Amino acid sequence: MRLKDYQAQALDTLSTYLRTLRDGFDKRATELADIEKLPSATRERVMAILGDPVAEAWQASQKSGIAASPDPWRELKDGAGHSIPHVCLKLPTGGGKTLLAAHGIDRILVSHFRQMTGFVLWIVPSEAIYTQTKKQLADRVHPIRQTLDRASGGRVKVLEKLDGFIRQDLEQKLCVLLLMLQSTGRENKETLKVFQDSGHYTSFFPQDDPAARAKLRKDVPNLEHLDLAEAALGGEGAAWIKQSLGNTLRVIRPVIVLDEGHRSYSEIARGTLASLNPRFMLELSATPDRTHSNILVSVSGRALKDEEMIKLPIRLEVGRNLRWQTTLQHALDWLDKIEKQAREFENRTGRYIRPIMLVRVDRTGRDQRDKSGALVHSEDAFEFLTQKAGVPPEAIRRQTAEIKELKDDDLLSPYCGVRVIITKDALREGWDCPFAYVLAILSKGTAKTALTQMIGRVLRQPQAARTNVEALDETHVFCTDVDVAEAVRRIKDGLEAEGMGDLGGEVTVGGKGRESEKIEMRFREQFRGKRIMVPRILHRNGKGKYRDLDYEADVLGCIDYEAMFYRKADEFNFADYDVGTRETFAIDIKDSARFELGSAPAADAMPVEQKLDRPGLIRRMRDVIPNPWQGARILDDALAALGTRASEAEIIGSRLTLIEDIKSDLSEQAKRAAEDVFRRKVKNGDIVFKLLAAPLDDFNFEFMECFETHVAYGDSKAPLLNTGGSPLDRALYDKVFKKDFNEFEERVALYLDGRDAVNWWCRMAARRDWGLQGWAKNKVYPDFLVRLDANGETARLRVLETKGKHLEGSQDTEFKSKFFELLEQAYSAGREAGDVELFAESPNVMRFRILIQEAAWRNDLEGVIS
């Protein structure tokens, strides 16, 4: 399954952070080895001034510009007082958190801990998410399970709370234990089961060996022991360690995946998670709290919209003085309408979509039905739909606390006939279905709350691809007797709760007697009637013919992978990074008056037999070398070169570290090769960046003189004004909204608007229409386009990219600097060629600049426009 651009970027950021963290730990290991050689008094003083490598890795990530949060490291310590590396990926609902978690496990285990086996504790906050995640992990053809199989070489073992496991499982498999958050909070009976003594985990604890138990207690000081009452059965009092799942996890030191991490901010939950002694904690949340989480990646709702992951805009239909039956009938009529359009769409394209309506009611309990009809019961809605509206009962599912009819239904299957789901709170969190298009809110007393809670359930786009059928690319909400402005605010609150607060302007309102939120944007009067275009990056397709640049075919597809090889075979440092060990214990009845079990080591610890899984290693290289034959060649050549320096056993012992080093080396070569391909094609004219005249002008990016956009009520409509409160003078469009700017961008915009040299300016990134594809995978979306006043002389265009000070010198900034310089050269070459007649408004000179947020930014900007 191909990752979306924002998902790939998030994982690249995680990998970069992990390398920084790994380098910090390796450096600390070397320092500690040197410190051990010092006299004890000196050693203690040196140890006291050493910093925390975990916090230092975060600071280094911030300095390099990869960490999203500017906040200091939020420390979390385990039961032994060690700092826990814990970072958060902020992803809106529907952004693929579970898939990113699986890919994150791959990177954490292999890249950081250099192993393909081990233990992952996957914690989820609700039963709905638990059921969904369990199904995905168990399904061997699901992308999430396949990602874990790829990471472990097909050796995944999925566990639940009551399943037993032994030490050998951890040595030979990737064990994933799925657990509810409530089981780790120390607040209920479920928690007690996790920390109860059990016979499932004997292989992790020395039994009849007080010295071994003492050593284990020293190594893991927060292990729980049997109390006096429990110890009476054990025979050795408090010296006996509880063989509970909780204690086992403390010994194992798992990698923790924390889904919906914002649900675990209580002191008890956070403390309990830390007490499990995790080696690493990966938090995923739509709405993390900056005071608790180290936010490494922050993905906006706009990114999901751009990748066609969600259905927008949200169309809100509000009835006035209508009975709930009328509102439900209106929603059903709309469902019928879009269902017809879905069938027509399927006939044209072969894509199957079956629109579903969610109906939210007031009550669901058997004894809660209100005879007066003031509060809508699930049975009221069911009876209306089946008896009055003609919906077959088999097309309806009731999903409530008491009735759970959504059991094994595959709602995306063409063989499923479900059209309507009636619920109250059972689908409030952790459930979504791409076919859910219509939300009907019938609950009067809690309609406002329902809008906030339920909107996230109907946003996901089928197949993550727009249909270009308006009704099938939108979400539709029907409610009654709610103030429209309040309803919009509640939906915006719901988007905020789903991590998509930046999409508040995607709510539009229909219905009688209410002003539409559809807003018309036009060129300012002095620019109307002009064609304003900028060039796009194109690929020549024969003489006088062009097409859009295809990154994978035109750049990656032209890399000479045959010339690539592992360049560091002579430098690689062999070490037993990846060798597991196994201890065997003999368990028998003790020779005593009482019936007791004891154990003793039957043999010395032995290395676990490992093999060089060649196909598995080649698969791990495919994200860098897409051709498996080339991957096999590079690996075989590397192994042959390494074989002259080390034995097969030494190579096997370092195999995971080796493959990561090979990938890192090949990645550097691939980036350089992609840049070489791009530059070569620009030089010989295969890739062009120039404006084209008719009949090829459709290849240019043309600004629409007039278009419609959707802006929410309230603050989202607030205009950007000059310092004195007057309207802007030089913006290209007649309306500019304050919401589209961060603080620095707003200051840049106001500065541009006050300069006489500026003919017009336009904020580009807010629309993300003009994307520039370079030799890196992700397109570049500049922030500002500025047309300078020609005054009868050279017409000039400036493209501005703004950056925070902390991003100065980052890899992204360096790439864009080189890319922009090349585009300037390409544009000049295109004009000088003279083979295309340009229109009158075309600029003679086009310059790209990166503007860094620092004290002298105004001087830098003045130099750009003067």
Concise structural overview:
With 866 residues, the protein is an alpha/beta fold. The chain is built from 25 helices and 29 strands.
Keywords:
866 residues; alpha/beta; seven-stranded parallel beta sheet; 25 helices; 29 strands; globular
Would you spell out the secondary-structure blueprint of this structure?
Blueprint: H1 5-35, H2 40-49, H3 53-64, E1 86-90, H4 97-112, E2 118-124, H5 127-138, H6 143-152, E3 156-159, H7 167-172, E4 174-180, H8 189-194, H9 210-219, H10 228-234, H11 245-252, E5 255-259, H12 267-275, E6 280-285, E7 295-298, H13 301-306, E8 314-319, H14 324-349, E9 356-360, H15 378-388, E10 396-399, E11 420-423, E12 436-441, H16 447-454, E13 475-480, H17 484-497, E14 507-510, E15 518-522, E16 533-534, E17 537-540, E18 546-548, H18 551-555, E19 581-582, E20 585-589, E21 597-601, E22 606-607, H19 614-620, H20 628-642, H21 648-653, H22 655-684, E23 687-689, E24 701-702, E25 706-710, H23 743-753, E26 758-763, E27 784-788, E28 796-803, H24 811-833, E29 845-852, H25 857-865
Helix pairs in contact: 1-3, 1-4, 4-6, 16-17, 19-20
